Every structure is written in structure tokens, then in C-alpha cells.
Amino acid sequence: MEGTMAHNVLYERKIGRQSADIYYRVLAHRAEMDETLNRLFKNPYFCHFFNTKSITSFWESIKAEQKTGDYQVNSLMKAVMTGLFFERNEF
Q1: Among candidates 62, 37, 61, 64, which has minimal Cα distance to 51?
Q2: 76 burial class (0-12, 13-18, 19+ CB within 10 angstroms)?
Q3: H or E segment to which residue 26 belongs
Q4: pTM of the prediction?
Q5: What digits encode the pLDDT tens for the residues 68-78?
Q6: Domain boundaries in the chain?
């Protein structure tokens, strides 16, 4: 990769917020995620667009540390981000 990527990118040792880390970051913030999901499940717009039973089931499997695909965790995070968008814009 020498000559292809910038030197500061190639030799960066700092742990970033990468997609591969998301499962472990979500586990590290279980309580915050529980609180956020409980709040979002009370929003009728969120409940209209997302299957809350499926989200709950998936979140429980994550909390039980049953490793899942990164794609699934990313999908959960996209649902949460959409719900937070609804909250922020008072939907």
C-alpha cells in the first residue's frame, strides 16, 4: 500500500470507529442502548416503519453476546439513527 495511501493513514495506530468494531461498541453501551430503544419504541412513527419485535429479539441476542454478522448490527444502528432523526425533528 506504500505509495497508494497517505502516510498518516497507512501508519495510523489509533483505534477508530470502524464498521468491524460496532458489535463491541454496542455491547460496551448496553444500558444506553436499552434506554434509547425503549424510548424509540414509544414513538408511533418509529413503530410504523420498523418491526419492534424483531429489533427487540435481535437486541436481546446481542446482549447475550451471540455474535452476529456486522451487517445485522449495522442495520440495527441504522434503525436507531432513523428513530433519533424522528425524535430530533419531533415526528
Answers
A1: 37
A2: buried
A3: helix 22-28
A4: 0.74
A5: 777 788 889 99
A6: 18-88
